[in-house]
UniProtKB/TrEMBL annotation:
It is a single-pass membrane protein. It comes from the Eukaryota. Keywords: Disulfide bond, Glycoprotein, Membrane, Receptor, Transmembrane, Transmembrane helix. It is found in: Membrane. The keyword Membrane applies. This is MOR1B protein. Gene3D superfamilies: Immunoglobulins (2.60.40.10).
């Protein structure tokens, strides 16, 4: 859902003739600009994929909003009088999990981190050997982790579920 910007450095002071962005698959988006015709071409590109700025001044690629299907390898090709240049970028999409904490009558706390990518880590405070975990992989590449904490025989009045993930603080 956020913005991704992939840079394409212009390492030469010579005027840009052509710049092309493509994702590494045969039917993926191809976005290009020819300066001699002042023309932008789009092939298989959604409206979410465009230039961040003007391709003449800065040929950075903007993807907004990003989704899981955008993950992959991208190539920026530039051409000028000095030659052709290739720049490679790899886009990894991370998805924060939805977190829920519930308990049942038998004093089992259930902490669930749903649909995260990569999977979230779940720990308990206080730490205990009385927890177990399950993991469910979804077709879109996200993962749900569920941790169970049995505290029926515990002297603790409460337990805390701690979920950590790269997409959250």
């Amino acid at each position: 859902g956020h913005e991704a910007v992939l840079s394409c450095p212009n390492i030469s002071k010579v005027s840009l003739l052509l710049v092309t962005w493509k994702m590494s698959c045969s039917s993926c988006c191809l976005l290009s600009y020819r300066s001699d015709q002042n023309k932008t071409s789009r092939l298989n590109c959604s409206e979410r994929i465009t230039w961040k700025y003007s391709p003449v001044s800065d040929p950075a690629l903007r993807i907004y909003p990003v989704n899981l299907r955008d993950e992959g390898n991208y190539t920026c090709q530039t051409a000028n009088k000095e030659g052709n240049f290739h720049f490679f970028s790899s886009l990894t999409v991370i998805v924060p999990p939805m977190v829920t904490l519930t308990h049942d009558k038998s004093r089992v706390a259930v902490c669930q981190a749903s649909a995260g990518k990569p999977p979230a880590d779940i720990s308990w405070i206080p730490a205990s050997n009385h927890s177990s975990e399950e993991e469910f992989h979804h077709p879109n590449g996200t993962v749900t982790r569920v941790s169970y904490f049995g505290w029926a025989n515990s002297s603790f009045p409460s337990v805390t579920c701690l979920v950590t993930h790269p997409a959250t603080n």
